[in-house]
Design a protein that fits this description.
CATH architecture of the largest domain: 3-Layer(aba) Sandwich
Structural class: alpha/beta
CATH class of the largest domain: Alpha Beta
Number of helices: 14
Bound molecules: cytidine-5'-triphosphate
Shape: elongated
Distance between the termini: 46 Å
Helix content: 25-40%
Oligomer: single chain
Radius of gyration: 25 Å
Low-confidence stretches: none
Strand order of the largest sheet: 13-12-9-14-17-18-19-20
Number of strands: 20
């Protein structure tokens, strides 16, 4: 948090109850490292205040009053040139209609017409207004011009007694994720990547299993980073408590055998596979179909190996980039190197789950990427998202090299 990120975001509040949340969105964007400015339509100021927006943005708010008062009246041009992205949150049915008909009658629509590079709408309205054919046509028209949308979502509606429906503005955190998507260069565009995440569960009976404390956070961070960089992402995930990331094909599995099936059946379509899952190495030889009653005395269970997914992909791989993880508790490099070779990987990410700060379930990690030529690239202790970005940088470079070699051979 707090690191300066590329991107200037103009946040415009439209006239709806959800404008109460616009100051929170500004704050979250600043926390995520973006430069922000706020714009409010005249009607928005019936639901939020100029002061709340100015404090959250850390700068004066662009309003229609300011536009008309400004000498030269070119605030719309200045804003359109300053912003990398305009986020309209909340966007009303009227705001969508004005923009879709190309009106430039207030500061918001004039800024859009003045050629702001990208627009992201976060609509909020009651479900009838959202489903109204004119609104839907306006949305598809704007989409056709390359505008992005986040939400509206299903949930409780603002007016008490209106119940629930599709019409709630997405939460500020979700809007920030979409901003990040829109501002990230698409250097993985055209690629299909498979990421595995989380633990597996190997059942003794319907209610008991062997597993491990993997939270899935590293794999989910990899999936989200690849999505933001433009890849088609297939996330094969064991059981986790994480919400399904948007824009990612999520395949939920439990057992190593199911993960094996899900990944190997899609391998031919993939350009890269990153195995961040903590796959159980063993499973009970037998799984009882009914819960096994408690018995006194000791008990012995026979365990048999699960399929080694990565090793199989290593044997099958042609052009794909294959990345593994090695969790080691002791002197790890040698063991990780032997896995790198044995599984025929392009690189392996060595981490130490028992080190403080990089433990299972945390938001940070510290990874050493080991390459077959002996190179070691260390990330230092950074967020799992930053580890993910570093991994995709290497995958992208390897795929580029491979393509260049392929082009020379042809
Ligand atoms: N892996 C896999 N299939 C398995 C076990 C592991 O694909 N059945 C993958 C993991 O997702 C990870 C890598 O192989 O990317 C290394 O896993 P790890 O369990 O640390 O290595 P093993 O080869 O199982 O060696 P060991 O348990 O002896 O450390």
């Amino acid at each position: 948090m707090g690191s300066e990120r590329e991107g200037r975001v103009l946040v415009a509040a439209g006239g709806g109850v959800a404008a109460m949340k616009t100051p929170f969105l500004l704050r979250r964007l600043r926390e995520a490292g973006y430069q922000v400015r706020a714009l409010a339509t005249e009607r928005a100021l019936a639901f939020t205040t100029e002061t709340a927006l100015a404090v959250a943005a850390g700068s004066p708010v662009a309003t229609d009053a300011a536009w008309f008062a400004a000498s030269g009246g070119a605030l719309h041009l200045e804003l359109a040139r300053w912003a990398d992205l305009l986020v309209v949150a909340p966007a009303t049915a009227a705001g969508l209609a004005r923009a879709a008909s190309g009106l430039a009658e207030d500061l918001l629509t004039a800024t859009i017409a003045a050629g702001v590079p990208r627009v992201l709408w976060a609509p909020a309205m009651n479900p009838e207004m959202w489903h109204y054919p004119a609104t839907q046509e306006n949305v598809s028209r704007l989409r056709g011009w390359g505008h992005g949308f986040v939400g509206p979502e299903h949930g409780a509606l603002a007016a008490v007694g209106e119940g629930a429906g599709v019409g709630r503005m997405s939460e500020p955190e979700t809007i920030v994720e979409h901003v990040r998507y829109h501002l990230t260069p698409k250097d993985l565009a055209g690629l299909t990547v498979i990421v595995s995440a989380g633990p597996t569960r190997e059942y003794f009976d319907p209610v008991r299993f062997i597993s491990n404390p993997s939270s899935g956070k590293m794999g989910y961070a990899l999936a989200e980073a690849a999505r933001d960089r433009g890849a088609r992402v297939i996330l094969v995930s064991g059981p986790t408590s994480l919400p399904a990331p948007w824009g990612v094909e999520l395949i939920a599995v439990e057992r190593a055998e199911e993960m094996h099936q899900a990944i190997t059946s899609r391998f031919d379509d993939a350009d890269a596979v990153v195995m961040a899952a903590a796959v159980a190495d063993w499973r009970p030889a037998e799984t009882a179909s009914e819960k096994t009653p408690k018995r006194s005395g000791s008990n012995t269970v026979e365990l048999v190996p699960t399929p080694d997914i990565l090793a199989e992909l290593g044997r099958r791989k042609e052009r794909q980039v294959l990345v593994g993880f090695a969790m080691e508790t002791g002197a790890g490099r040698e063991r990780a190197r032997s896995k790198l070779e044995r599984k025929n990987l392009d690189f392996i990410c060595l981490n130490y789950p028992t080190r403080s700060g990089s433990a299972f379930g945390g938001d940070y990690n510290e990874v050493e990427m080991l390459f077959p030529d002996g190179r070691v690239v260390a990330t230092g202790r950074v967020s799992k998202r930053e580890v993910a970005e570093a991994i995709w940088d290497r995958v992208r470079d390897l795929l580029r090299e491979r393509n260049e070699e392929g082009a020379q051979d042809a």
